[in-house]
Amino acid sequence: MVPIEIYYASVCGLCTKALDFFRERGVTFTAYAVEWDGEQEAFVASDNTRQMYKRCGEDVDFVPQIFIGDLHIKGWRQCEPMIHSGEIDRLVPKPD
User: Fold this and answer.
1) Which residue in 7, 25, 69, 95 could disulfide with 65, CB within 3.0 to 4.6 Å?
2) Is there a domain that residue 54 lies in?
């Protein structure tokens, strides 16, 4: 199975939707918590934040950032249409 990695913030409702979707699907994934500082309007510096920035190839200001293998899905708003179209089914088949 292709590795799935998700960068998320606990204050993010769309992150919760993404995490719940993959949990309900029954697939294994790795979740990396990042923390948003509302006063600074930026993510708090951490190993996970630096790793997320490096993988995304740019400074991002929203989560979730989802990786399915080498495919980068930029947020729930990009992931949700992939779910409805069936593309996620092809990328991440449900376990038997």
Assistant:
1) 7
2) yes
